[in-house]
Amino acid sequence: MRLHELTYTEVRKGLSAREFSARELAAAVLDRIESVEPSVRAYLRVRGRDEVLADAASADRARDTGGAAGPLAGVPVAIKDNIVTRGLVTTAGSRILEGFVPPYDATAVERLRGAHAVIVGKTNLDEFAMGSSSENSAFGPTRNPHDLSRVPGGSSGGSAAAVAAGEAVLSLGSDTGGSVRQPAGFCGVVGVKPTYGRVSRYGLIAFASSLDQIGPIAADVEGAAALLSAVAGPDPRDSTTAALAVPDFASALDEGARGVTIGLPAECFGAGLDAEVGEAVLSAVDLLKREGALVRSVSLPHTGHGIATYYLVADAEASSNLARYDGMKYGRRAPVEGDLVDSYSATRSGGFGSEVRRRIMLGTFALSAGYRDEYYVRAQRVRTLIARDYARAFGEVDAIVTPTSPTTAFRLGERIDDPLAMYLSDVYTTQANLAGVAAMSLPCGLSAQGLPIGLQITVDAFRERDMFRIARAFERAVGLPRLIPEF
Hints:
The protein is of the alpha/beta class. The protein has a domain at about 5-255 and about 470-480: Amidase signature (AS) domain (Amidase signature (AS) enzymes, Alpha-Beta Complex). It has helices at about 10-15, 20-40, 50-65, 105-115, 155-165, 180-185, 220-230, 275-290, 305-320, 340-350, 355-365, 375-395, 420-425, 430-435, 465-480, and strands at about 45, 75-80, 120-125, 170-175, 190-195, 215-220, 260-265, 295-300, 400-405, 440-445, 450-460. Strands 1-3-2-4-6-5-10-11-9-7-8 form an 11-stranded mixed β-sheet, sandwiched between helices. The protein is globular, with a radius of gyration of 21 Å.
């Protein structure tokens, strides 16, 4: 038994049955990282071996003494590097934060520590979570474990690749327009974007504050449900969290799909969709029908405006959020002779990568005098129409099924100089963020080239239990083996 190959479900059973210890599991994961990380580059930094093993030993003691040993005790977890970690460098994949050591933990990290999860390290990402391939990181790209010539998706590419490659059992990412789901789809793992407000954003380095949400990545549906249960819930430090109790997501996993109504939007199965991807998703829907789900057509008429709307809203918020990185209080400050404006200009020009600079300029333009109503305000109106589309659809169905991405993972460098082609990778994912609803991606097959294909399930706000119920029913019925890449 190779411990790094185990899913969360298998890890939990093995730890509970004392088949292996948390310390042995952590050691196996660290050995795996040492072996494959030169090829994958999922991590920006891994904690010291002694630190990780000490945390794992602490989880073992909690279990052995009858202490607080919950579902995540002793489970190795990777954290996306835009989620702050006390005492551990956090850069958001940017030179402008190179060497920044936060003095506090994000709420999600704090809750993981309280659950005795074992934090392994910080994963790579597109700079400030702006990208769909993890090629925009200032520290170099992550590679897809299933084909090292291809991207893992983005912006949470490091978090998805780490789980896919057996370098972590679970991981946290962030999803602003598909940044958990799209890399999960490309890497053949499960990724969840919770409802906006389900998980605290305290300690998440902001990209677009009305869209950002922390979400779990796992090799199986049960792992994603357990991780979301651990980090979700109200937080007085984040006024946008919902004052709602966290449901027992695990209890939904055995309810099956019988009686659930699934909607198929025609707008997501037309031009631009790779034939293999479309066939795999429709085959998954047929399987859910055999499991007792009901399927009907729904319409999301404003889908075609989703990408344009998203990039106006997100970039406008980014231009405001990233104004704080001026080199005055923390992070990089460029050496310069001149006045304050010269210092700002040199620091920001040298500290931000090209994609971040592009989005700041686009967002600033969209908010500028004479253009705000034409671009930003109009985008917010279309955002309302998109939310209404989903509200109407969820009046008819329990869930909406689409592809996660129109293609499988593309090659490194293939789209890096074509921003529009890159942005279209998120054509099916941005709407859930704009509408504030919940969505997840899970593997539903392989292409002829052996690349994972992602199935996206979207549910109404705070209906994650329905999402997990359907996902687990499909996972059980399809019986896809976990794909562990060999290098």
